[in-house]
Design brief:
The complex is a heterodimer. Chain A contains 8 helices and 6 strands, in the order H-E-H-E-H-E-E-H-H-H-E-H-E-H. Chain A is of the alpha/beta class. Chain B contains 4 helices and 6 strands; from the N terminus they run ββααβββαβα. In chain B, strand 4 and strand 5 form a beta hairpin. The chains are: A alpha/beta, B alpha/beta.
Chain lengths: 178, 184
């Protein structure tokens, strides 16, 4: 292989680090996007036998939003292997113990159970908040758009903007604002 | 042994761009071994009588040897410029078929036994525009920013929210007020 072709190979199979903000996102829908980038399915050169997967760094996994009453109803099963070793953990309990676990399991379960899955999971880095170590942050060169709109709380708007917002109605004089 | 697993994968190749500008026949030597009595050599004997001289005249670059031997089945042994030797049994072959196989040996560049062609074409330059890289269709403005950035913090093509619509209406109303004042 000539020097030029070698460099071409490095460029084509360059591993990109993506950033994904999981705040206010459904982890099961997000898993489909994260999985796609972890496995390299978004690349035109994708092939099952070639290692073309990227790295995905997920931040704010503590702020994920499960749909409906899934926090109460979703159950994670574990068995130690010993008699009576079965345990069932609710999603909210698991999230309290480890705020990265729900998302991690969602991505893990979204992929086929083959040998490659463990190695693909090694390329997924999840952080419960936005504190990412500097050596990881400096590798990141792309950001994945979130799937759902991230709402903004009223107390996060600047005060001036809130005051100047057009008023539609005047409250009646005897109305008590809670 | 036609199982794919036992065959070595190979690409179509020509030695030192053979055929571009000039053609060098790659078959060096061919030995036809046959028996003078045995029935399995009949086609070979027919070919030697009727077609061999013609073949040798047409291909002056190929050395043709004949080797009669008693009570053995006929074979063709071909030797190529690259050192390959191909041995081929032509037992009970009619003379037409022997000529066909000889033509094949004459036109190929090496022995392809135990090989499997990965594809029926070969090119040094599979893509004119260059192979894809992750940077090919990338927005160059992303090269200088430090992540995370605000522009990619929301999904693409969001429908207009009621809040934005209200603000727009409010702006329009203000403009109209200013214009009506001017008119006065």
């Amino acid at each position: 292989m000539s020097a030029l072709k070698r460099v071409q190979q490095w460029a084509t199979f360059a591993r990109i680090w993506h950033l994904y903000d999981a705040a206010w996102q459904n982890p099961f829908d997000s898993a489909q996007v994260i999985k796609k980038h972890l496995m390299g399915l978004h690349k035109p050169i994708y092939h099952t036998m070639s290692q073309c997967g990227d790295v995905v760094v997920v931040i704010n996994s503590a702020d994920i939003a499960l749909p409906g009453d899934e926090w109460k109803k979703r159950v994670y099963f574990h068995h130690t292997g010993y008699p009576g070793g079965a345990s069932w953990t609710l999603a909210w309990e698991l999230h309290e113990k480890d705020p990265t676990m729900v998302l991690k399991k969602a991505v893990y379960n979204s992929m086929d159970g083959n040998i490659q899955r463990r190695y693909t999971m090694q390329r997924l880095l999840i952080f419960p908040d936005s504190n990412v170590p500097k050596d990881i942050l400096e590798n990141i060169s792309n950001q994945l758009r979130p799937l759902r709109k991230v709402p903004k709380r009223l107390d996060h708007y600047p005060e001036k903007e809130v005051k100047e917002f057009p008023k539609i109605i005047d409250y009646p004089k005897d109305y008590i604002v809670k | 042994m036609s199982n794919k697993l036992f065959l070595l994968p190979a690409l179509v190749s020509a030695p030192s761009q053979n055929g571009v500008g000039r053609y060098v026949g790659q078959l060096q030597r061919v030995v036809l071994k046959f028996c003078k009595n045995n029935g399995s050599s009949r086609g070979m004997r027919d070919f030697i009588e009727s077609g061999l001289v013609n073949f040798a005249k047409e291909n002056p670059g190929v050395v043709v040897y004949l080797k009669p031997r008693r009570h053995r089945s006929p074979i063709i042994k071909a030797e190529y410029l690259n050192g390959d030797t191909q041995w081929m049994s032509v037992r009970n072959f009619p003379q037409e078929e022997i000529l066909k196989w000889l033509t094949l040996l004459n036109t190929q560049a090496q022995c392809h036994n135990g090989q499997r062609l990965r594809r029926l074409w070969f090119t040094e330059h599979p893509s004119i525009q260059g192979p894809w890289t992750p940077y090919t269709f990338r927005d160059p403005s992303l090269n200088l920013v430090s992540f995370p950035i605000e522009e990619l913090a929301q999904p693409k093509d969001l429908p207009k929210s009621s809040e934005e619509e209200l603000l727009e209406l409010f702006k329009k109303q203000k403009l109209q007020e200013v214009e009506s004042k001017r008119a006065e």
